[in-house]
Every structure is written in structure tokens, then in C-alpha cells.
Design goal:
By secondary structure, the chain is α/β, with parallel strands linked by helices. The chain is built from six helices and seven strands; from the N terminus they run E-H-E-H-E-E-H-H-E-H-H-E-E. It is globular.
């Protein structure tokens, strides 16, 4: 079921807390939206909430950053520059999707949509889509769907 909310930048920490409470090892969180929509900022705050002490930056050129915490490993992917599933798998990244202790955060999931829509992954997805509200750039709109209900979210960025 698709859900949505509007929030301001000042409310971001409260929004992050709502989602951090839903994450457990094995979760794959996809983050979709146009450049500058707030995906990386959300991931930075989320990682801090989960206990990552080091600076979290978007791994645009390395594709993935790994943060080891007690009992869980966070894999933060930025797939903006990846060519597709073949390249993703050639780097061995599909193994990270199968880590039973892993929480996987994927920016630009459309690059590997047909992979993560497979039943083995689809049931573990929490899909988030971010967009600016045209009337006020300080406000964001967030749509999300839980575990398996990702039709229309993965594979297409919001263009409004």
C-alpha cells in the first residue's frame, strides 16, 4: 500500500526516526527522486540515527560505502553512474543484497530495477520516492511502500 507525507527540512530527523524503526537486517531500502530531491541527505541522517559515527557521503564514484555496526552492516549504494545489472553483478554487489546481517540503501534503484524486483528481493523492499513541492522548495513530499508493494516506484523517478 502506497503511503505519503509532506515534511520540511526541519522535520527530517523525525521522519528519519520513523523509518529507522522499521529497518531490520535483510531490508532493502530504495530511494528514488530527481537530483537534489533529498535522497543522500536522508541516508546521511538515517545512518547517523542507526549509529554510524563517521561522515556519510554519497558513493557516486565508488558505487558503495560500507558501515559496520554491532550486529548489522549498512551498504549504501549510489547507482547514478552504473550502467546496469551486468556491471552491478560484475562487481559482486549482488552478494551484498543477500547479506542476512545487512541493511541495503540504494539511491537510483532504477539502474537495477529488474534485479531487485525479483521475488527473492522484492519482498524485502521498502521503497521511498522523494520530490520537492513546487510551491515551496523547503518542503518535500515522500511516498513509500513496504515489502513487495513497489509497483510504480522502482524504475521511475518523480519528475513533477
Amino acid at each position: 500500500m502506497l503511503k505519503s507525507m509532506q515534511y520540511s527540512v526541519q522535520q527530517l530527523d523525525a521522519v528519519v526516526k520513523l523509518f529507522s524503526n522499521q529497518l531490520q537486517p535483510g531490508t532493502i531500502m530504495t530511494l528514488t527522486g530527481l537530483l537534489g530531491a533529498g535522497k543522500t541527505t536522508f541516508v546521511q541522517r538515517l545512518c547517523a540515527e542507526l549509529g554510524v559515527a563517521e561522515p556519510v557521503v554519497s558513493p557516486t564514484y565508488s558505487y558503495v560505502s560500507v558501515y559496520a555496526l554491532a550486529g548489522v552492516t549498512i551498504y549504501h549504494f549510489d547507482l547514478y553512474r552504473i550502467s546496469g545489472i551486468e556491471e552491478f553483478e560484475s562487481f559482486g554487489f549482488a552478494d551484498y543484497l543477500n547479506d542476512p546481517r545487512g541493511i541495503v540503501l540504494i539511491e537510483w534503484p532504477d539502474r537495477i530495477a529488474s534485479l531487485i524486483e525479483r521475488p527473492a528481493y522484492r519482498a524485502r523492499i521498502l521503497a521511498l520516492t522523494f520530490k520537492y513541492l513546487a510551491k515551496n522548495e523547503g518542503l518535500r513530499e515522500l511516498h513509500w511502500a513496504h515489502h513487495g508493494d513497489i509497483s510504480g516506484l522502482v524504475g521511475a523517478a518523480v519528475e513533477e
